[in-house]
Each structure stands twice: as C-alpha cells, then as structure tokens.
Amino acid sequence: xxxxxxxxxxxxxxxxxxxxxxxxxxxxxxxxxxxxxxxxxxxxxxxxxxxxxxxxxxxxxxxxxxxxxxxxxxxxxxxxxxxxxxxxxxxxxxxxxxxxxxxxxxxxxxxxxxxxxxxxxxxxxxxxxxxxxxxxxxxxxxxxxxxxxxxxxxxxxxxxxxxxxxxxxxxxxxxxxxxxxxxxxxxxxxxxxxxxxxxxxxxxxxxxxxxxxxxxxxxxxxxxxxxxxxxxxxxxxxxxxxxxxxxxxxxxxxxxxxxxxxxxxxxxxxxxxxxxxxxxxxxxxxxxxxxxxxxxxxxxxxxxxxxxxxxxxxxxxxxxxxxxxxxxxxxxxxxxxxxxxxxxxxxxxxxxxxxxxxxxxxxxxxxxxxxxxxxxxxxxxxxxxxxxxxxxxxxxxxxxxxxxxxxxxxxxxxxxxxxxxxxxxxxxxxxxxxxxxxxxxxxxxxxxxxx
Length: 451
What we know:
CATH superfamily of the largest domain: Glycosidases
Number of domains: 3
CATH architecture of the largest domain: Alpha-Beta Barrel
Number of strands: 24
Structural class: alpha/beta
Strand content: 25-35%
Shape: globular
Helix content: 25-40%
Low-confidence stretches: 1-18, 228-235
Oligomer: single chain
CATH topology of the largest domain: TIM Barrel
C-alpha cells in the first residue's frame, strides 16, 4: 500500500509539472532603456530548475544572496554549479576593467547556449540581474512558469548620471520598515541608487538603521539620513529643490549638484485630474512631465553641466498617511525619472516608454505594489491642412484609452463616436472629448475649439 501511495504521489507531481505554464518572450521591455540593445533570431529556454555559476564573487556576498532571493521570488529553484559551461546563468566579475561599463554598467548576453552577465563591480552585476528579471514575464512573481524562452540578445548598459534618487520626508511610524524595504526593492529594480530619508532616525534605533542601510546596500541603494536644515547630503554636494537657477548657481560655485526642481520633482502634487485622485498638493506633475525633465538645461556651460550629477524626485508623506499612499504618489513617476537619469537622450522615446509602463504596471501589481494608472487628460495637437481645415490628433499618457468625442456641441458618452486616428476638422469646430479606460470614465469632458 505504501508503495502505491508513493507511486501515486510521483505521478501527480509529474502531471503537475507537465501542466506547468510556459512563456515565450517576443519583445524585451526594460525600464530604464539600455544604452545599447539588439535582439537576434535565436533563443534560450530557462527552466525552473535553473543552474547558476559565479566568478569572482564570494558565496557570502549580500548582493549574491539578494539575486538568489530574487530568482526564488520568480519561482526559479537556482542551484550553484562550478563550471560556467554547465550553467544557464553565469555571473562574472571582469578580470580586466571594462572602462565603457564603469562602476554600475554591465554586459548581458542571451545566447543559444545560456545567459552570461559580466560587470566590473557587484553593483553592475546586480543591475544586470534586474534587467534580466524585467525580461521575464510581468507576472513571474505571481505565476509559476515551467519554462521561459528568451530571445537571443546583447545588452550593454551604463548610467548617464551617477546619482539617481528619491527623497522621502517621513517618519518610520508612517511608512514602516516593511514598506521602506519594499520601496528599496522597487528602486533597485529600476536602478535608482539613492534614497534620501528625512526625519526617520528618531523613530529607529542605531541597530535598526544599520540593518536598513545593509538592506539598501545589498540592493545597490545608498540610504542617507538627510539634514533638511542644511540641505546637504555629502561633502560638497547640494540638494537643489528651488529650481534650475539655484542649481546652476551652486554648480558655478564648484559644488556637485543634485537637481530637484519642483515643477518636475515635487511629487506631493497631483499626477492626474484632481477630482479623480486622492487629495494632494495643488498643481499637476504628470508622468509625461517627469519624462520631459532634463537635469542639465539646454545651453548650460560645460563646467556647470559637469557639476550636475543627477536628480531626485521628492515626496513628503502627509500626517496620518500610510505606505500605500506613498507608493501611489511615487509610481509610476519614479519610472520616468529612472529612464531620464539612466538612459542617454538618443535612446529615450516617449511613445515606447508609455507602452513599457503598461508592462511595468503588471509587474508591480504582481508584487502587490500600488501605483497610479496615470493621467487621462487628452493630449491634443492640430496641424494645418489648408486655410479652412486642420488635422487633429489626440492621445493620452495611458495606451488603450478609448476617447469618445462629439463635434456638434453635445456632451460625449460611451455611445458617441470613438477616436481611432487623426481626423480632419473645419476651423471653428467645437470638439468635446471623454476618456474611458477599462470601461470606466477616468476624467472630465474636455473641450477644444479648432482654430
């Protein structure tokens, strides 16, 4: 009888394994956009029993332990092997310094024989692993896959700015250590490397802060307790939140400057139409607005530009608020900032980014992380066709938003005409627009007169 039970259990296990889900990744969607990425024709299939090798890294490395934990969270069962040729995933520190990669860059290659990741530093390897994690299906932390097939590709990547931060004005009593750790995990995933934390030290013991700093460091994030009175973080570094002018003045004085102009980086403000959002500070800073941010204004002198080392999004947690509110206000705006600070301008593209954000929303939701859907305010543009006619184009920050419209003065409903592409309208036409997303009216009716 015992033998029959064992055999039955083995059969059930085999059947379960055979019914496991599999996925084939067709397009790589990574935030922030890598400096160089090319997909090829071949592929490599990873199975849940992933074999991994490391070169130049100690088995007790906190970074390695975090990578293994991250792989397990994606339902892999990583086992270490000594020979790189026998591994599915190889992590290797470079014997010879690759000057193109610097301290945080990496080279990630998916080949027909396996996946190889190399870097000059452990932090570079960590960021390469985060890129690899984003290549996996968006729901990989929630759904177990028996096999995932990735396209062959080569990714060479390194940051544009060395300081990529978020500043949170809060106490641990509001966010809590658990959610502060979750925020650090999200920052690491998107290669943000400074968490400026103002006001929490009084709520934690020295041992607790040491633990948080170690936790952050293993994820490639430096945790700083900010002195808000001096606005300084490190020697000769200025956190500039009054605007571009002050930042440039301080740069000319020889200071290293972290830009935080409120028109782009004050994330206490609404990120969409106020009546459809939780209460926030007056003003709107949308995802598109953050994505348009350039820490080095056009025309900046070379010496001043060299002194601008990055930027920081800032959020002050209101009294009585909670961690979910903080996540909602930071995301997905933090994704836009990560791409602005990591990726060079010639690889950034708003249309591609807004599509990538939809994938990242799925990824965040699978981790149970709260975020704002985005602004549904219509983005309206008009191009002259002739003296009496204009070509009208409408979009929103969020792809797959239906826009219902009227041109006869009536209020649009979900029974009105649906905008499906650029349309020619006569000058003087009064057009009204209603955005609908996931079958819910997400914003006010907007009106424009074609001029």
